[in-house]
Design brief:
- The chain has 689 residues and is α/β, with parallel strands linked by helices.
- The chain is built from 20 helices and 21 strands.
- The strands form 6 sheets. Strands 1, 2, 3, 9, 10, 11, 12 and 21 form an 8-stranded mixed sheet that branches.
- Strand 17 (544-548) and strand 18 form a beta hairpin.
- The two termini are 35 Å apart.
């Protein structure tokens, strides 16, 4: 929805000068500055106003801060010669305090991200995913065409319901232009010319793993469902291996989100039709039995034992085709991970993913361009709409309406290109379901005036902190040729550590690299010899989500010393595995820590004290801010997602979780919501639906 806007004149000179320092020398010699600035303009335009202004202000601060750098003699950064400008950046990024280091590395990451989105820069490092993806798509269809067609048909298979192929209801002020492949029942902002009011049985806010499943399950039995999604509708054929475009169109706030703490933890939320299932890696694991047993015994959650949940997991896995990878889709980076684990005799297992003969083009986080990944975009949402569900995309819900403590619907507005407000949408419904994720669900409930008697709304946030390293090998690996994640190392699960390898596109990889300028260019020329691997830990501490005027929801999370030590251990183990596989150098996610060149260097790493503010952390697993429990003093919602202090209000996303689960959460969300939909259907008369 973003459109480019010029970079303000006061910032343009600073950004141009900054890019000349942090990007490889080819930026200047090949006159790519204009293309870089255009890419950066698009990125800025995708940000909310407070973040956009904050980034521009950060460049100004960096520029003016040079006046206090002794060698600058009171001059601004833009007035320094090349050598002194480089020395000043090094001082800010490596030798100054934590705040200056964070500022410099943030700005460097944004500029180098945009630089490595340029086709010329990608060509120079041997990255050409477009041609590779086209070849993979052709091979997949030629080899597995019958299976693929069978899977596509299964999305709409009649499971005994009688509501299949229901025509969408006509809507006032809506004009639908015929478009090949466009699902019936979809309304986008471009279709709407005036304010609208619609009625339905159930309105669902959010179209990801929770919202889409709930919509399909309810629509299967003839319940009139409306789904509202803040992001846009982007069909499979629109996905391409450009990280910048994906960040602007598929991610909330262009991926520029982080939890406040020491260190800050970068996180991502999907904002598009299909939610985060469109941009995740597709890993599918059932909730560990020990977690379900604990929820049942200690958290007072009803009917959530492994035996009780088994049939829901079965149903979900059939719908999204959970399966192991075809051997030919497993790339060299994954083979090296397995080789290292086997040599160390560590437990490693093949990954389960929601895919139909995934070809291994490894751009899952930019949307699957072949449709092999069975996200909500291509499974549950088309099924729901074939049963008469209506989907409104590009629509931000401002609040849930209510009468007393009873939810009565939602109100919001369509978002025009550039973030401008369009016509309003009012939905009147007997049941309202918030399925917009562990950050946006508490935010929506707060905006709407709902409060939990437990005081736990927005609290109990778990996020599975992740850290990654970069291992370089002598031979070419081509990590982008092959599946996103074929294996998981489970040797250290009892210690709360999970190890994987996941290729990262060049532009995103540079976000976390400390190198800049010529050093960065030299390193990135080895991109095809890199394996990116890392660890996920099961957190022992929780954070929270709070509302702030103008800004909206703010996430805070302070990692514990215990968990930080587990991160260091997990990275050390991952490095050991990479050296066992033949790596010659390992770059660490710890500021100031030297690169490792052999397994012998691990002893020095393990003896080193790593300050909290020196650790680079990220996550995509956000859980627990509206946790379920039958105990109203402990839980925000009941065992089946019903808000404890309201009627007709439900939650259906990862915020339901009473705690972290130690594995990828998508299948847990889907199974819980399938179960909760069954409960709602059984009690539908209570809500007049």
């Amino acid at each position: 929805m973003s459109t480019s806007r010029p970079i303000p004149r006061f910032a343009r000179r600073i950004i141009t000068r900054f890019a000349g320092v942090v990007c490889p020398p080819e930026l200047r010699t090949t006159r790519r500055v204009r293309s870089l600035l255009a890419e950066f303009s698009l990125y800025l335009a995708a940000l909310p106003p407070h973040l956009r202004l904050g980034i521009l202000a950060a460049f100004v601060l960096f520029d003016q801060r040079a006046r206090f750098y002794p060698q600058a003699r009171g001059r601004r950064f833009v007035d320094l010669d090349a050598a002194l400008a480089d020395a000043y950046f090094r001082y800010m990024a490596h030798d100054s305090g934590a705040r200056n280091r964070t500022l410099a590395q943030l700005l460097k990451g944004l500029i180098t991200l945009c630089y490595y989105e340029l086709p010329q820069a990608q060509a120079e490092i041997g990255y050409n995913p477009v041609r590779y993806t086209a070849a993979i798509a052709q091979r997949r269809l030629a080899t597995y065409g019958k299976d693929i067609r069978r899977s596509e048909a299964a999305v709409f298979a009649n499971d005994g319901d009688t509501s299949r192929d229901v025509a969408p209801k006509p809507l006032p002020f809506v004009s639908r232009e015929p478009r090949p492949g466009r699902p019936a029942g979809l309304t986008e902002q471009s279709d709407v010319s005036g304010d609208m009011t619609v009625t339905c049985d159930v309105v669902i806010v959010g179209s990801g793993a929770g919202g889409a499943v709930m919509a399909a399950e309810l629509a299967d039995v003839g319940i009139d469902v409306v789904v509202i999604e803040e992001g846009g509708y982007h069909p499979t054929e629109s996905f391409a291996p450009q990280s910048g475009h994906a960040l602007r169109t598929l991610y909330r706030d262009a991926g520029a989100q982080s939890a406040i703490g020491t260190p800050p933890i970068v996180f991502s939320e999907g904002r598009c039709v299909g939610g985060s299932t469109v941009i995740n890696g597709g890993m599918c694991w059932r909730t560990p039995d020990a977690i379900l047993e604990r929820w049942s015994r200690q958290e007072n959650v009803a009917e959530v034992t492994p035996d009780a949940m088994s049939r829901y997991f079965d149903k979900v896995e059939r719908r999204i085709n959970v399966a192991y990878q075809d051997p030919e889709s497993i790339g060299r980076d994954q083979q090296l991970l397995k080789m290292g684990a086997d040599r160390l005799r560590w437990e490693i297992i093949p990954n389960r993913r929601n895919q139909v003969h995934c070809g291994g083009c490894n751009i899952c986080t930019s949307g699957c361009p072949t449709g092999a990944k069975r996200s909500m975009l291509v499974t549950y949402l088309p099924r729901a709409m074939s049963r008469g569900a209506r989907l409104f995309a590009d629509c931000r819900v401002e609040r849930i309406t209510r009468q007393g403590k009873r939810a009565t619907g939602v109100e919001g507005y369509f978002v025009r290109p550039g973030g401008h407000r369009g016509p309003r949408l009012s939905v009147r419904a007997g049941v309202v379901i918030s399925a917009c994720g562990s950050i946006q669900t508490p935010a929506l409930l707060w905006r709407s005036g709902f409060r939990s008697p437990s005081g736990q709304l927005g609290r109990n946030l778990s996020l599975h902190p992740n850290a990654k390293l970069v291992a370089l090998f002598d031979d070419e690996v081509y990590g982008w040729q092959g599946v996103h994640q074929a294996y998981q190392v489970r040797q250290f699960m009892d210690a709360g550590i999970l190890i994987t390898a996941i290729n990262i596109q060049p532009s995103l990889l540079t976000l976390g690299l400390p190198q800049h300028g010529r050093e960065l260019g030299t390193l990135m020329k080895d991109y095809n010899r890199m394996v990116v691997a890392g660890c996920l830990i099961d957190d022992s501490r929780t954070g929270r989500v709070q509302m702030r005027p103008v800004i909206g929801p703010v996430v805070s999370y302070q990692i514990s010393e215990q968990d930080a030590a587990r991160i260091v251990r997990g990275i050390s183990l991952t490095a050991e595995l990479m050296f066992a596989a033949g790596a010659r150098r390992v770059l660490l996610p710890f500021s100031g820590a030297p690169d490792l060149h052999s397994a012998a260097d691990l002893a020095d790493l393990q003896a080193r004290t790593i300050p909290l503010d020196a650790i680079e952390l990220l996550t995509v697993h956000l859980m627990g801010t509206a946790r379920m429990s039958e105990d109203r003093r402990r839980g925000v919602v009941s065992s089946f997602g019903a808000f404890h202090d309201a009627e007709g209000l439900f939650v259906a996303d990862a915020s339901l979780f009473p705690g972290p689960i130690g594995v990828n959460p998508m299948e847990t969300i889907m199974a819980l919501v399938t179960r909760n939909a069954e409960w709602l259907i059984a009690h539908r008369s209570r809500y007049g639906i």
